[in-house]
Every structure is written in structure tokens, then in C-alpha cells.
Write a structure and sequence with these properties.
The complex is a heterodimer of chains A (400) and B (118).
Chain A lengths: L1 H21 L3 H38 L19 H10 L11 H17 L18 H22 L3 H32 L4 H6 L5 H4 L1 H14 L11 H4 L9 H26 L14 H23 L5 H29 L6 H41 L3
Helix pairs in contact in A: 1-2, 2-11, 2-12, 3-11, 4-5, 4-11, 5-6, 6-9, 6-13, 9-11, 9-13, 11-12, 13-14
Chain B lengths: L1 H28 L29 H24 L6 H23 L7
The chains are: A mainly alpha (400), B mainly alpha (118).
């Protein structure tokens, strides 16, 4: 496997030499090489998503006791593997209807912005040992920043459509995304504290033991809030087919709708890969040191595992109401995330580094388990009180 | 370092191409049969009633205000988290006091019923 890694690391100097040989100034040669690399990188999520859409439809159909896409039609191929391609061709050849009332500029730019942002996230994600588009030293911060950017495009789509369903969907989406960004950032802060870096490669390298075994509460917080950020069930009330039809993209047709759909799946896969990188050890695994390309395989397996959990939530959980969603965030996730940051900070300093990494890690794990038990206890008490209030309220209300 | 950000710049252009290309391909392939009926706003088949650009529920604004507090806080906490390994205990305690003040603010908002969906 060595030649393959040499291939990746040698191809860019070789290409640059070739371009300079033609007579291109070396700055432009560098830009062209980076551009080609960028194209190669941008195709990774695109190809992954094409198959993940198939997998998602198939698996969710099985969870809900349906067959899902199958080979009964003329085109879809064995196990309907080519269904996504057929859908893509269908969308490309559909007429594009722009409502007369819509704000045309905002309406047309929104799908471009959302797909651009969904692709941009992949620039910093480590796809294997030393395979990253650009290992920024602010990597995870860049991802969080782009997450807020996609919120703007949702608002553009919802407001620009001049449609009541779209407006409702967009405002729900914004409320959802800004709320759940808080626990997401706070759980990332806990990870950064333990790893000591914002760079995604450095965070991966810091995980001799995957962080999910060191701080399971943080991992759960991050996954749940990312799920909400991506608008997946049970947080899909921004799309909510059965109440506001399709939310912010109800007026879009043809490939513009396709771009929303595509970027949604790209974001879903991105959060799977980011969760795998931050908490499951990323590309780290057995034999990575001798055969570096195996790292990409481990990362793929881990992120498919996370994606499966996401599909599991998608296929089984009912949708939350907006007040439930906001309550769950502000009255549960945010306080827990704040306390979690304090606990991680205190435990890291209370156990001196002279005690060794294993001691520190087990102390963190113990503190996390205690936190989880305390939270569950608080939930039990709060639930009991709420039920008692309900019962007494009913007794007062009923005519005796 | 600069090379890394050059890549982000180049990748922005690549991503824009990825964003525009499907629409451009569809522009070539798609049929175009405009019709005033088609361009009506979709409202489940009924005649649309009024504009959608209306004044909206103020409750969302309250949540946005609470969010701003916590987002600014995150900006303060990220450098602290990054420097955590070099920090003395008192710096950590200070940051924890800062977080506890925020937790107090959250409790205040909670008690004021601003988090209750009307």
C-alpha cells in the first residue's frame, strides 16, 4: 500500500512541476494544483451521498416494514442501487417554476448558497492519516462557523418564497439551529480542552482512547445537538411534511429542490464524520501505522456506524413540537452542557498530569458517569413533581 | 499556514462551481412552459390569501436574544479551552465562575418565564 500514499503525496509536486514546465508562473501553478485537489475532495461527499441516499431509503423502509426502492422498475438496477441516479436525472429535466410573488434574487441564490456551504465544510475534515484538504489550526471552529452560515440560506429560502409554509419552516429552522448551536459549541469546548487543539487532525491524534469512552456525556450532547442542527428526526419540524408541507423549500422545484435535498444529506454525512472524528477516534485504528490508507477505511466504517444511528432515530422517533424542542434545549441540554464543561475543567486540573494519562482518563470517565447519574436523578425527581402537579391540577379542575 | 488558507480560498471557488453547476445543467436540460397558474404561490390548492411577509411571533426574538448571550460566551471560552493545558488552577476557577454567572443568567431567564412558549 506504500505506493498509493506516495502517489497522493507526490502527485502535487509532480503536477506543479509539469505546469511550471509549460510556463505558468509558480503561484498560478500552485493555485491550479490546489483547485484540482479541491475538485477531487469535493467529489468525496458527493459520491458518498449518492449511495447514502440509497442506503437511507432502503434501511428506513425496512425499519418501517416497507420494501423501499427495489428492482421492480425498468431502471433502478440490482437492489435499486441506481435509483438515486434516476432521481437525479429526473430532477435535472424538471421544469423550474419560480412563483410570481417571490423575491427572485434571494429565491434563486438560496439553493446555491446552501450547497456551497455543505461542500465547504469538507475542506477541514480529516479523511485519513495526513489526508485533509487543509488542516486548519482552527478546524472545528471553521465547521461551527459554516453551520451558522447555512442558517442564513434557510432564512433566504423561506423569506424569499413569499409563502406562509416556507416562512413558518424557515423561522422554525432558525429557532432550532440557533438554540442547538449552544450545547454543540459547549460540547466542542469540552473536547478542545482535553485534546488541546482546534485542528481536526490534532484532535484525532489525541485520541489514543476514543473520547466516547472518556466523556460519553459530551459525545451524547454533541450528537443530539448536531442532529437538531441538521434538522433530522425527531427535530425535523422545520420540514414537517405533514403540517407545513416541506417548510422552507416548499416552492422549489426541479434541481433547486434537488440541491436542498443533496445539501441536507451532505450535512447529515458531515455530522456523522465529525462525530466519528471527535469522539470515535477518526481514522485511528489497528494497523494504521503500517498501512496508512486503512485509516480512511476505519473512518468510513465509524461514520457509517454513526450514520446508521442517525437513520435509526429518523426511522423510529416521532417529531417534537416547537415548545418541546426549545424546552429540551434551554432547560435541559444547555445547563447540562455548561455543567459538563465545568466538570471536565475541574477534573483535568484536580488529577495532576504526573498521575499519568490512564489515571486522568478514568477520572474523567468516572466524573462523566456521576454527571449522567445526577442528571437522570434530577429528571426522575422533576418528572415526579410534574406528574403530581398534573394530578392535583386535574382534581381541582374536575367538578367534585 | 498561508497555504492552508489559500486552499480554503480555492476551495470556495470549487464549492461555488459545485453549487452552480447542477442549476446550470438543469437550465440547459429543463423544459420551459410558463403559465401564470403555475407561478401562483402554493397554498394547498387554495387561492393564496395575502402576503407572507408579515410581522411574526415575537417569541422567536426572545430566544434569539438568549442565544446571543451564549454565543458570545462561546467566543470567550474557546481560547480558554485551547490554552487549558498551560493554565494555572486559578485561571480555570475564574472561567468556571464565569460559566456559573451564565448559568445564573439562564436561571433568571427561566424564572422570568421567557423560555415558556406562549
Amino acid at each position: 500500500m506504500e505506493p498509493f500514499n506516495d502517489f497522493i503525496s507526490n502527485i502535487s509536486p509532480w503536477l506543479q512541476g509539469l505546469l511550471e514546465g509549460i510556463g505558468l508562473p509558480d503561484v498560478w501553478a500552485r493555485v491550479v494544483v490546489l483547485g484540482i485537489g479541491g475538485f477531487a475532495l469535493a467529489f468525496v461527499p458527493l459520491i458518498a451521498v449518492i449511495f447514502l441516499i440509497w442506503a437511507a431509503r432502503k434501511l428506513i423502509a425496512r425499519m418501517q416494514d416497507r420494501i423501499g426502492p427495489n428492482n421492480s422498475g425498468p431502471y433502478p438496477g440490482p437492489y435499486a442501487l441506481f435509483q438515486t441516479f434516476a432521481d437525479a436525472i429526473k430532477m435535472l429535466t424538471k421544469e423550474d417554476v419560480i412563483p410570481a410573488a417571490a423575491d427572485r434574487w434571494v429565491f434563486n441564490i438560496a439553493p446555491i448558497v446552501i450547497l456551497t456551504i455543505a461542500v465547504l465544510i469538507w475542506a477541514v475534515i480529516p479523511l485519513g492519516k495526513d489526508i485533509t484538504g487543509s488542516d486548519l489550526n482552527i478546524g472545528i471552529f471553521y465547521v461551527l462557523a459554516l453551520g451558522s452560515g447555512s442558517m442564513v440560506s434557510l432564512l433566504m429560502a423561506g423569506w424569499g418564497s413569499d409563502n406562509k409554509y416556507a416562512l413558518l419552516g424557515a423561522l422554525r429552522a432558525v429557532a432550532n439551529m440557533i438554540s442547538y448551536e449552544v450545547p454543540q459549541i459547549l460540547s466542542v469546548i469540552a473536547v478542545v480542552m482535553v485534546a488541546g487543539s482546534l485542528s481536526m487532525q490534532e484532535i484525532t491524534k489525541a485520541q489514543n482512547v476514543p473520547f466516547i469512552f472518556v466523556m460519553p456525556v459530551t459525545a451524547l450532547l454533541f450528537f443530539v445537538s448536531s442532529l437538531a442542527e441538521a434538522g433530522r428526526q425527531p427535530y425535523d419540524l422545520m420540514e414537517a411534511d405533514s403540517e407545513i408541507v416541506a417548510g422552507y423549500f416548499v416552492e422549489y422545484s426541479g434541481m433547486k429542490f434537488g440541491q436542498f435535498y443533496l445539501s441536507e444529506f451532505m450535512n447529515n454525512f458531515a455530522i456523522s464524520v465529525i462525530t466519528a472524528t471527535l469522539f470515535l477516534g477518526g481514522w485511528q485504528g489497528p494497523f494504521v501505522d503500517s498501512v496508512p490508507i486503512l485509516g480512511s477505511l476505519w473512518l468510513l466504517l465509524k461514520s457509517c456506524l454513526v450514520f446508521f444511528v442517525l437513520l435509526w432515530c429518523w426511522g423510529t422517533l416521532p417529531r417534537l413540537r416547537i415548545d418541546q424542542m426549545l424546552n429540551f434545549n434551554w432547560k435541559f441540554l444547555t445547563p447540562v452542557a455548561l455543567v459538563n464543561v465545568c466538570i471536565v475543567a475541574l477534573v483535568g486540573k484536580a488529577v495532576p498530569s504526573s498521575a499519568g494519562p490512564w489515571m486522568q482518563k478514568s477520572a474523567l470517565l468516572g466524573a462523566n458517569i456521576l454527571l449522567a447519574l445526577a442528571v437522570l436523578g434530577a429528571l426522575v425527581v422533576a418528572g415526579r413533581q410534574a406528574r403530581r402537579r398534573d394530578v392535583s391540577g386535574q382534581q381541582e379542575a374536575s367538578p367534585a | 499556514m498561508l497555504d492552508q488558507f489559500t486552499f480554503i480560498g480555492v476551495f470556495l471557488i470549487v464549492a461555488l462551481i459545485f453549487g452552480v453547476a447542477p442549476i446550470a445543467i438543469a437550465f440547459v436540460l429543463r423544459p420551459k412552459k410558463p403559465n401564470p397558474r403555475k407561478a401562483e404561490t402554493y397554498e394547498c390548492g387554495l387561492q393564496p390569501h395575502g402576503e407572507a411577509w408579515v410581522q411574526f411571533k415575537v417569541q422567536y426574538y426572545v430566544f434569539a436574544l438568549v442565544f446571543v448571550v451564549f454565543d458570545v460566551e462561546a467566543v470567550f471560552l474557546l481560547p480558554w479551552a485551547l490554552a487549558y493545558h498551560q493554565l494555572e488552577l486559578y485561571a480555570v476557577i475564574e472561567a468556571i465562575i464565569f460559566i456559573l454567572i451564565l448559568l445564573g443568567a439562564l436561571l433568571y431567564v427561566w424564572r422570568k418565564n421567557a423560555l415558556k412558549w406562549m
